[in-house]
Amino acid sequence: MQAANRLQQALRTERGLSFGAWQMLPGANHARFMARTGYDWILVDTEHGNIADWQMHEAVAAIAAEGVSPIVRIAANEGWMVKRALDTGAHGVVVPLLYTADDARRLVESAKFPPVGRRGFGSPFAMGNTGKVSATEYLQTANDSLLTIVQIETKEALENVEEIAKVPGIDVLFIGPWDLGNNIGRPVLGEFHEDLSAAIDRIYKAAVDNGKRVGIYCAGGAAAKKYADQGFHMISVVADVVALPTFLSNALETASS
Q1: Is the pLDDT at 128 greater than 90, yes or no?
Q2: DSSP letter (8 states) at residue 93
Q3: Which residues pair with 236 in a beta bridge?
Q4: Which end of the chain is more exposed for a tag (fewer CB within 10 A), N or C?
Q5: Residue 201: which region, alpha, beta or left (left: phi > 0; alpha: psi -120 to 50)?
Q6: What share of the chain is helix, strand, coil (3-state, %, to 5)?
Q7: How far is Cα 79 from Cα 68, in angstroms, rounded to an integer?
Q8: What is the pTM of this model?
Q9: CA-based torsion, 5, 10, 12, 16: positive or negative
């Protein structure tokens, strides 16, 4: 089952580098096309994306069928949301709006089967998207094979980031620069303010000092390369809602020039 989790395999290499893309528009075909473009993982965004529960199920299956890791961002740190995402067969969850280490521990409880956590077992869908394993094998290996990823995007999470990074069962600290900038009073209006850059550096250090990987959301390839060169691990390169209008407008500009 671990071998099927392409993102986890990438994160476990010495360099630990992986590139992903962000899906905010619904549709299994849309998810499938994105998964065929060479990324290690596609994130299905149910927080800010236009993606309902049943559309999440179909997107996860379409992505996994292409040998790419489907990762689901849920809308809040709620146990039932974690369960719904993992029960689709997602290879991991990204969870926004954490504030404290206790929030991180509560998330781990929701994401892990007993005795580590309290996740309930019963989904008939999860096994087919995580390496086509049996129900027994899924139950025995899911705790070690699925990724639990916390977003560090609030002022409180930044203040508590060293303690959050120490929580067993958390695999990746993922930075949302735009919300983080807003929440520390340094909104992104162009180049990142030096205080925001310092906050990103602090999160990176907290993660690596505690044996965790660190990820970041980027708005394009140039920023993604910058953070890859700096040693970041789970890097979101572009979102569909950015890529599609950018490509369309650039193509029209070229055609009409």
Answers
A1: no
A2: E
A3: 20, 217
A4: C
A5: alpha
A6: 50, 15, 35
A7: 25
A8: 0.96
A9: negative
Read off φ and ψ for residue 198, nearest 5 degrees. Answer: -65, -40
47's tokens: 């927080």
Tell me, what amino acid is at 165? Answer: A
d(CA 125, CA 189): 43
DSSP letters for 189-233: SSSPPHHHHHHHHHHHHHHHHTT-EEEEE-SSHHHHHHHHHTT-S
Q: Which residue has the higher pLDDT, 132 or 114?
A: 114
Q: What is the pLDDT of residues 179-226, one digit of tens each?
A: 999 999 999 999 999 999 999 999 999 999 999 999 999 999 999 999
pLDDT for 224 equals: 97
Residue type at 201 in one-letter notation:
D
Angle at alpha carbon of residue 104, lines to 102 and 106, rounded to 5°? 70
Tell me how long the chain is.
Answer: 257
Instruction: Point out the catalytic residue in the list 48, 91, 193, 233.
Output: 48
**Annotation marks residue 48 as catalytic:** yes
Tokens of 157: 């999470």
Answer for the pair 59, 67: CB distance below 8 angstroms, yes or no: no
CATH code of the domain occupying 2-256: 3.20.20.60
Identify how many contiguous H helices and E strands the chain contains and give both numbers.
Answer: 12, 8
Domains in the chain: boundaries = 2-256
pLDDT band per the 50, 70, 90 thresholds, residue 4: confident
The predicted model gives 40-58 an average pLDDT of 98
